[in-house]
Amino acid sequence: MLRIKQSIINQLLKGCSLDELKKAVTTAIALEFSTIPPYLTGLFSIMPGSNQRASALIQSVVTEEMLHLTLASNILIAIGGNPDIVAIGRSLVYPGPLPDQIDNDLQVGLASLSKPQLKKVFMAIERPETKPGEILPGEEAPQPTPVDPGEFGSIGQFYKALLTALAIANANNPGLFSTPRLDQQLDISQWFPPVPTAPAEGKIRNLDDAALAINTIVIQGEGIQTEDDAHGNQEGLRLEGKPRHARLSERILPRHRHGGDGGASANEIYPGDGDGSYAHYFKFGEIFYGRELMPDPEAVSGWSYNGAPVPLDESQIYNFLPNAAVSDYLPGSSASVAAQRFYDAYQMLLTSLNQVFNGKPAAMDRAMGLMYQLKLQAQQVAQCPVGGNVSNLVAAPPFMLIR
What does pTM read for this prediction? Predict the structure, then answer.
């Protein structure tokens, strides 16, 4: 899972200036955006018409990351700021850690979809915070989140601290949300599937709306809640060395629940995202384990990847040049020409998104068209061999100009 510098969290919990608050929200925007190139690279590596279930799962995660970016941007707009999407996009370097506030133990690279990329990058990014003894579906033994006291906290803790900072700022300055610039905020109902957990239209009018937006980001990404409250005394499950069931917020409505008397135990996890689907970690888990996640009363977590097949035919995956930049390709070659066209389309997309969140939300129409163009350009890049006659290595769509 991602971990963020504890000093940032501590500053938010103490309260901060408006400029510092805007900077923290911008960090959230950068974090959400930084996951999109790795996920898109995996998605674009799937050959057209193949691995359709895996493709749909990854596409749904990308869509939700765009939703999270939108909700965070709407919060920033509501408190008087605007994100620089172009600067955020151009600042990202792969392989490497995500934005500079993030623990560099997790090196994120751009590569074709594979079981290692799913486990070591996609699921590592989205892995929920767990405590000693807690176990997630698919795990054979507990894998507690690494703890570095005073150094790093979880992304979930960061978002909670961000909400605390917003509450402190709102208490000290009741006018914080008095001019939310609703006309500049993007109406998510026009561009995303229904999101019951989000504020109306995804727009931020007050602190309550900001809380709903942040809750949506957290539960769609991490899903489970491991706080030691809201479900009564469970000390019997918390004995040293004993597996414990991770838990979700009671507000979350899972896709599946156990049947039978009384339904599922409150002690078992519900890996839902509040919108009738699963949180990102569990969607990627379905591809990695090759099966849909289903309730399983015999499993410690209450869930197992034992449902319908989710096949991943790796013979139908392009073998992309990893961590590609435009500069990797010989000038004038077919790969270089196709890569430059992809990168140009990506830059146009960054510019359009920047317009969307800087006073021109109607520019989202052009941005959506550019997202489709990006997919078509990626398919053109993938037709260019780069490994010589004895290799199936092909050019990859570059999200970087040089490296």
Answer: 0.88
